[in-house]
Every structure is written in structure tokens, then in C-alpha cells.
């Protein structure tokens, strides 16, 4: 009979194969960060299930403890244990170095944090007055369509946010929408991540093309709700000049 730790490992492998290769055949591919999140939840659930009793905890952690202490291990098993202790720190050091070492290689594409919108969006202004009624309607639409990613507090920490890389924008940060005109937000919301030009792809977004689901007047009111909820004000064309 397989140990609980082996069963948890088999479950993790099965979950990875399903998320990586089977699920994309039925729906869109999942981001790597979301796959990692599901695997972490699967392992946590397995660990909780197998360690609910004292005997289960001993059986689950027994192989790990015996490997670390070398109890009852001789010959090939003990040699493999020593090799793991030697190789693991080297791998961690190499991975850390490759992440932190400066690179002289140019980026794959030109990088611009805020690529210019197409000409059809330049100079647009919100056609709706900033009344309390319009702002409240915008916040309601935001709660329904945007808050799962951008958060109920407009801080980019919605329940779905951990699944995306790059993460959803934090509207309460003065370095985001406060630096942009409403016309820019209208373009980004309407056309989504797929509407970014090539120079913006290093900051590509998973945001959908909302023009498919939302009429223009809803998008403009969502923008009002975003600015009001984040306690920010949009830049104006006069400020740009």
C-alpha cells in the first residue's frame, strides 16, 4: 500500500496533467501562476486530509523524517540522501544568482508602460456628467464586472488577482489611473489586453475585450466609479498641454 505522501504526490501529478494539458482542450489555457495556486491548494488539502489524526501525521511525515535523519538507510539510499543535501543548496544558489545577476541583453520588445491609444480614442472626453447617480451606477457596474480582479477597494487585490501575472492594476496607487486621461481608460477597458499594440506586450493584460459585453455608456460610468472609489482624479488634456 502506498504511503500518504506518495498518494499526495500522485494526486499533484494528476492535477498538473489535468490543468496543463487536458483543461486547455476544453477551455482557455490557464496562466502558470494560477496552475501553481491550484497545485498549492491541492497539496495543502492533501496534507490536511492525511494528517487529521496522530497516526496519520506520523505516517505522512515518516518518510520525510527518515530521509532527513538517515534512519535505516544504507548503500544507494544513503548516497542519494547525501547527494540531495549537496545539490539542493547549489541549485538554490544558482537560481538566486540567475535571477539577480544583471543582464546586458536588450528586452525582446520595446517597453512602454503606457502605450499611446489609437487615434480614434485621442481627445475623447467622458460625455456623462459626474452626478451622484452616474457615479453610483458606475460603482455598481464596477462591483459586478471589475472587482473580482481589481478588488472591492480598488487596490488590485480582488479574489481572482493572484491568478494573473502581471497583476491587476491598483487604482488607489497615484501612479496608475491618476496619471491617465479618461479616454485612455475607455480604450483599455473597451479593447482589453488583446487591444494593446506590440510595444505594450511586455505589460500585456488578461483583461477581456469588454466592448463585447458592455455598452459605451456603461464603460464611461465605470470609469467615473473607479476614480471616485480610488479617490483619484483623471488627468485632463489641459494638464497634458
Amino acid at each position: 500500500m502506498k504511503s500518504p505522501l506518495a498518494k499526495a504526490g500522485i494526486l499533484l501529478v494528476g492535477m498538473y496533467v489535468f490543468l496543463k494539458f487536458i483543461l486547455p482542450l476544453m477551455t482557455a489555457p490557464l496562466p502558470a501562476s494560477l496552475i501553481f495556486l491550484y497545485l498549492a491548494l491541492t497539496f495543502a488539502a492533501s496534507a490536511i486530509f492525511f494528517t487529521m489524526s496522530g497516526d496519520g501525521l506520523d505516517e505522512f511525515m515518516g518518510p520525510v523524517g527518515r530521509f532527513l535523519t538517515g534512519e535505516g538507510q544504507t548503500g544507494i539510499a544513503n548516497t542519494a540522501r547525501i547527494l540531495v543535501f549537496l545539490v539542493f543548496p547549489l541549485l538554490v544558489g544558482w537560481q538566486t544568482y540567475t535571477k539577480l545577476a544583471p543582464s546586458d541583453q536588450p528586452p525582446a520588445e520595446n517597453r512602454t508602460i503606457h502605450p499611446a491609444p489609437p487615434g480614434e480614442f485621442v481627445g475623447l472626453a467622458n460625455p456623462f456628467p459626474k452626478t451622484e447617480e452616474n457615479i453610483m451606477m458606475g460603482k455598481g457596474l464596477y462591483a459586478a464586472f471589475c472587482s473580482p480582479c481589481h478588488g472591492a477597494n480598488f487596490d488590485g487585490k480582488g479574489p481572482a488577482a493572484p491568478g494573473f501575472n502581471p497583476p491587476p492594476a491598483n487604482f488607489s496607487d497615484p501612479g496608475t489611473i491618476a496619471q491617465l486621461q479618461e479616454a485612455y481608460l475607455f480604450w483599455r477597458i473597451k479593447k482589453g489586453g488583446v487591444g494593446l499594440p506590440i510595444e505594450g506586450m511586455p505589460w500585456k493584460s488578461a483583461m477581456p475585450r469588454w466592448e463585447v459585453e458592455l455598452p459605451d455608456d456603461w464603460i464611461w460610468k465605470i470609469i467615473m466609479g473607479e476614480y471616485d472609489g480610488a479617490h483619484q482624479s483623471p488627468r485632463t488634456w489641459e494638464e497634458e498641454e
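Confidence is low (pLDDT under 50) at residues 108-112. Residues 119-240 form a domain with the Cytochrome Bc1 Complex; Chain D, domain 2 fold (CATH 1.10.760.10).
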